[in-house]
Design brief:
Elements lengths: L7 H30 L4 H29 L4 H11 L1 H14 L4 H30 L3 H6 L20 H31 L12 H26 L1 H4 L4 H28 L13 H27 L14 H8 L3 H18 L24 H9 L5 E2 L5 E2 L38
Antiparallel strand pairs: 1-2
Helix pairs in contact: 1-2, 2-4, 2-11, 3-5, 4-5, 4-11, 5-7, 5-10, 5-14, 7-8, 8-10, 10-11
């Protein structure tokens, strides 16, 4: 049975603060002991300074996550926000550990690199969930709008048809990075074990150069699809102020990637060379350590930006009901990404076989091949259909209805929206002209 304590909101935040204080009491002496044990050189000083920023960053991020869990009134919007907010603590701790143990950096960085693809995917979920609730006939709205041309450098390509096709291709463009990035990360681990990875060395004799090119193309195309979707639905997305949120996601992902490339260029031209490795064992360790040190500092700034950009305040409701266990479990529900990726693989496979769906987002599509059965259906459509006599599951089975006013977690893949037809409190409702183009 989920715990449902009426007073849990009063003690959960002080409890987290006490636990964090106890963590500091244990970690700070450990850091001082490590500094005294080792010869205090550049490496140790960098690790200690980075640790200061990390332990300033984590409480800011955890506070924002905790506030969303306490005021978990819009599950379909707050669940992807919470996943995005976790990016900063994961990046900070990963980089700090990689800075302390350079030989393990390739392994701990795997978590960070995979999570950045997951963040982009969740940002897409956030946008589409909001759009599907505010505009159930989103495809029809797009069809009557002016044709959106491609942006540079794809401006010479034929534009994607407005409506279902544009939504489908933008979604597919983002999801491909969700698949490509983990695959290339696993390949990087294998190449490292085989001794052919050679990180931060621009040479086509190693695997790192090829993987950087693949990841860069995949990442740029995912971001391109997000920008194209925003341009097509700029007016409809205005209430949630997507520009600041997009910049927070884009800057963290892009800056971390391109500064790694810049450091590799500095190694290539000899600015970072064997003559000055300080306390590191090799030039590669210096390049990796410099990247991790910079990320630890950048995440402090990112935590502050996320605190204001992905604020919990629009979701605060006067009459809140819910369970701390339900809110916490909703944060760990990953069933939606599994359904979306498998659905896109089926759609791509049918396209290559010459049997693409005629309807991507339409209600006449077969349920097992409907584009809407994944990203939109797992959260948004369940919330919309909950206002009827019951909820239709992925296999066409009927599930009992649940009170839409509770906003409680209903199990894997069935998180209900307490206000499925309205924007969160504090957000400006879109003007009627947004649906009559």
């Amino acid at each position: 049975m989920p715990c449902s304590c009426a007073q849990w909101r009063r003690w959960i935040r002080p409890l987290v603060l006490v636990l964090y204080a106890l963590l500091l009491v244990a970690v700070v002496p450990l850091c001082i002991w490590e500094l005294q044990k080792d010869k205090v050189g550049t490496h140790s000083k960098a690790w200690f300074i980075a640790g200061v920023f990390v332990f300033l960053t984590i409480p800011i991020s955890l506070w924002g996550i905790l506030q969303h869990l306490v005021h978990y009134t819009q599950p379909e919007l707050q669940k992807p926000i919470i996943r995005i907010l976790w990016m900063v603590p994961i990046y900070s701790l990963d980089s700090w550990l990689g800075l302390r143990y350079p030989s393990l950096a390739i392994y701990v960085d795997t978590c960070r690199e995979c999570y950045e693809a997951y963040v982009i995917y969740n940002f897409l979920i956030f946008l589409l969930n909001f759009l599907s609730h505010q505009h159930p006939n989103l495809a029809m709205i797009l069809e009557v709008q002016q044709q959106q041309p491609h942006l540079p450098p794809l401006c010479c390509c034929p534009p994607w048809p407005m409506g279902e096709v544009l939504l489908f291709r933008c979604k597919l463009g983002v999801l491909q990075y969700t698949v490509v990035r983990p695959v290339t990360t696993v390949i990087a681990l294998i190449c490292q074990l085989c001794g052919v990875y050679d990180e931060a060395n621009f040479s086509f004799r190693n695997a790192w150069s090829y993987l950087v090119i693949i990841n860069n193309i995949s990442q740029l195309f995912a971001m391109y699809c997000l920008v194209l979707l925003y341009r097509a639905l700029k007016e409809e997305l205005t209430p949630i102020r997507p520009v600041g949120k997009f910049l927070c996601v884009k800057l963290v992902v892009f800056v971390s990637f391109w500064q790694a490339v810049l450091i590799a260029i500095l190694v290539k031209v000899g600015v970072i060379s064997d003559k000055r490795t300080w306390d590191w064992e090799s030039v590669e360790a210096v390049a990796t350590g410099l990247q991790d040190f910079i990320i630890c500092i950048e995440m402090f700034l990112a935590a502050i930006a996320h605190h204001y950009t992905f604020s919990y305040k629009p979701y605060v409701q006067e009459a809140e009901e819910g369970s701390c266990f339900d809110s916490f479990m909703a944060m760990w529900d990953f069933s939606d990404i599994r359904e979306d990726v498998s659905e896109q693989v089926r759609n791509v496979g049918r396209t290559f076989l010459g049997r693409p769906n005629k309807m991507y987002f339409g209600s006449t599509a077969r349920p097992e091949h409907s584009e809407n059965s994944g990203l939109l259906n797992s959260t948004s459509q369940d919330a919309i259909t909950s206002s009827t006599s019951g909820i239709v599951g992925p296999q066409g089975t009927s599930m009992p209805p649940s009170p839409t006013s509770s906003g409680r977690y209903q199990g894997l893949g069935h998180t209900q929206a307490p206000h499925s037809t309205s924007a969160p409190a504090g957000f400006t409702q879109p003007t009627p002209t947004g649906e009559n183009h």
